Amino acid sequence: GRNTFPPPFKVAFTLAQEARVVHVGQGQSELYTANQRVTLGPGDTLIMKVDNFVNSWQKGEEDRYCQVIVFELSAPLLHHLYGQQWPSWFSPQGHASIQAMEKVEASPVLNGYFTQLCTYLDHPGTLTEDMIALKAKELVSLLAQAQLGGVVPKIFGDLFTTRDYEFESVIQQHLYEPLSLEDLAFLTGLSLSSFKRKFAARYGSSPTKYMITKRLEKAHLLLETSAMRITEIAYACGFSEVGHFSKTFRSHYQLAPTEVRKRSDASE
């Protein structure tokens, strides 16, 4: 189906029984799994396996709303589409090397498919069950053809295989991302209270204190060694608001970010 909604919009969700193909019409998205971050914009297409996801939507420069087309792919649907005539690239490829989501390279053929699909969605009465099945099969074929020999064909042989992630690897992967503790707990598959207990046991600190300290240390280093603007540094270190970053930085170092930058410039 096609969903239209006002940004900003953030949602955490689990795909447990079905995979998805997502095509962005309007808006910007930062999509996270336990070990990935993918940026999506208008015209981008994404294949999503079963896993936990956190999706943060923002409006584009000229978009008032976000719009996305979503195809849900369940095992029963794929069996219905292909019966016993499964394409060769549907065979399992070894899920250890397959990520939970893969961005598909844009192509005129793929863009044409979604343009035509929007016409059908504008007139839902024309979409029969047989038509939906045909369009789903066409989409799967187009996606597989988009990167023959690459990851995209392989992921279709591994859509419904879950993965286990190391707790520490999830933390380090997203240490400088603008994710909340609730988001990180969700990506590790834990409740917030269990996440805090496990974090304290592994790192000897509360997650809030540890993450803020690490983010400020990185920001301090970038202020001294890079030409990045303070706004860019704040975002690169996981702060979503520059004002909050400056206040937290001053409280920790007893210096404003601008003062650290001036001292660094003066010493050169």
Question: What are the defining features of this structure?
Answer:
elongated, 4-stranded antiparallel sheet, alpha+beta, Jelly Rolls, Arc Repressor Mutant, subunit A, 268 residues, 11 helices
Mass-distribution shape: elongated
Strand portion = 15-25%
Low-confidence stretches: none
Order of strands across the widest beta sheet? Answer: 1-8-3-6-9
Largest sheet: 5 strands, antiparallel
Helical amount? 40-55%
CATH architecture call of the largest domain = Sandwich
Count of helix runs: 11
- As for the number of domains, it is 2
What's the level 1 CATH class of the largest domain?
Mainly Beta
What is the gyration radius calculated from CA atoms? Answer: 22 Å
How many strand segments?
9
**CA-CA gap between termini:** 57 Å
Structural class: alpha+beta
Along the chain, the helix and strand elements come as EEEEEEEEHEHHHHHHHHHH
Estimate the mean pLDDT confidence: 89
What CATH calls the topology of the largest domain is: Jelly Rolls
How would you portray this structure in words?
- The chain is an alpha+beta fold and 268 residues long.
- It folds into two domains: 2-155, Jelly Rolls; 167-267, Homeodomain-like (Arc Repressor Mutant, subunit A, Orthogonal Bundle).
- The chain has eleven helices and nine strands.
- The protein has helices spanning 75-82, 108-122, 129-146, 151-155, 167-173, 181-188, 192-203, 207-225, 230-236, 242-253, 257-267, and strands spanning 2-5, 9-15, 18-26, 28-33, 36-40, 45-48, 51-58, 66-74, 101-104.
- The strands form two sheets. A five-stranded antiparallel beta sheet has the order 1-8-3-6-9. Strands 2-7-4-5 form a four-stranded antiparallel beta sheet, covered by helices on one side.
- β4 (28-33) and β5 (36-40) form a beta hairpin.
- α6 crosses α7 (192-203).
- The longest helix is centred in the last third of the chain and has 19 residues, at 207-225.
- 25% of the residues are buried.
